[in-house]
Design goal:
By secondary structure, the protein is mainly α. It has helices spanning about 5-25, 30-40, 50-85, 85-110, 115-144. This is DUF1304 family protein.
């Protein structure tokens, strides 16, 4: 028994989300449209700095964060690939990626007013995590 089509779509969405934020944060962060949009969404405008200066101050932090997102996206892709090679490893990688997305979405919701982004990050990942976790319980019982 493998992943349902719905769960696969959710996992691909989680991977895409991580990859998209890698692009935005690590590559295009200094583009005014990107940092203005994200700083506004995060409700993090500085009191004494303009967005351009705030973006410059945060540049290295966002590059670092962007690469974390890339590594999680790669982990998710590796997990999907491993489903064909070693199902247990594939499930473990995908569960880790979904867990990270849920955790990151919760932190985003708690520390900012970017509730829509937090929801888009956490909810699909939580559903995928639950579906895969239940599937691994079933898979484990089948193997005994």
């Amino acid at each position: 028994m493998g992943l349902s089509r719905f769960t696969k779509v959710l996992v691909v969405f989680v991977i895409f989300d991580f990859f998209m934020f890698f692009i935005l944060e690590a590559i295009f962060w200094m583009q005014p449209f990107v940092h203005n949009l994200l700083l506004t969404w995060f409700d993090n405008p500085p009191v004494s700095l303009g967005f351009e200066m705030h973006a410059l101050v945060l540049k290295k932090l966002f590059i670092n964060q962007g690469f974390y997102n890339l590594f999680f996206a790669v982990g998710g892709i590796a997990g999907l690939y491993q489903l064909k090679v070693n199902r247990s490893v594939g499930y473990a990688l995908i569960l880790l990626v979904c867990f990270a997305a849920v955790g990151a979405g919760m932190v985003l919701a708690i520390t900012s007013k970017a509730y829509l982004l937090a929801t888009l990050q956490a909810v699909p990942a939580a559903i995928a995590f639950y579906n895969i976790f239940i599937l691994t319980k079933h898979y484990k019982t089948e193997r005994k």
